[in-house]
User: Fold Fructose-bisphosphate aldolase from Caldanaerovirga acetigignens.
Amino acid sequence: PLVTSKEMFKKAYEGGYAIGAFNVNNMEIIQGIVEAAKEERAPLILQVSAGARKYAKPVYLKKLVEAAAQDSGLPIVLHLDHGEDFEICKACIDDGFTSVMIDGSRLPFEENIALTKRVVEYAHERGVMVEGELGRLAGVEDNVKVNEREATFTDPDQAVEFVERTGVDSLAIAIGTSHGAYKFKGEPYLDFERLKKITEKLPGFPLVLHGASSVLSDYVEMCNKYGGDIPGAKGVPEEMLRKAATMGICKINIDTDLRLAVTAVLRKYLAENPAEFDPRKYLGEARNAVKKVVQHKIRNVLGCSGKI
Ligand code: G3H
Ligand code: 13P
Ligand code: ZN
Assistant:
């Protein structure tokens, strides 16, 4: 069944582990993720971006996720990733999502609060959970310099005020991660001091880490070996994610690692099997790779194996 994240987050917080929130765009990705979660008996969030809805059409993704929940028997949260306005959040809530993100992080503080509050009111009347975001993730390729951290990373006092005034159920914070495959130019750095302050000021409150792919080197190398060109890709080290999971981070967002795995395996399969043209062969390989990555995350990064 589709479930809300409320109990999941409570257990994760208390247990010092995180739940994986994986972006989905098609059937193979959904099936790979869900097979892994089923084998691991792991709680699961499947999330859909505006781009995913545009690519696959909302109704297809909704029905595929419903099919996955029905077929696996797993409790699954269906979440909107980076909703940018009230309308897309409303559309997803009306469509049966159990959780939505309203991402007002680009807006001035007061406007972010006003927008988030409006979504929370609509969502909560319908039993749907809301994730807000405060602070700005670095864009692909721009390394946040030390003196810029104050301006872009989440301010702990503002986080408290934001949570109190909006009534959000969880909060995405900026502590040094970024979206995509190029997260750090030099040494990876996350501001754990800041995370600690936020957790101390908001005890028991679930925090969310976006941009949390590790950019697994096996798959980057496989891509590059079979004709890809993604030099210098770098993600968040796994031990940093494990640490974050013990410090109030209850939801860890992963998209890039799945994209890389799919692409790497496709490149390899097609290069090694030039006569093959049955999509089920190579998409089946991609599905297996997604499953493998998610299983690895659940066991070795998130710590949520056996938690349902
Ligand atoms: O945060 C972004 C996610 O990786 C989704 O990406 O907007 O290209 O679907 P997308
Ligand atoms: P990655 O690009 O690190 O996978 O982050 C995904 C994300 O935050 C989706 O919201
Ligand atoms: Zn994100």
Notes: The first helix runs from residue 6 to 15. Residues 6-302 form a domain with the TIM Barrel fold (CATH 3.20.20.70).
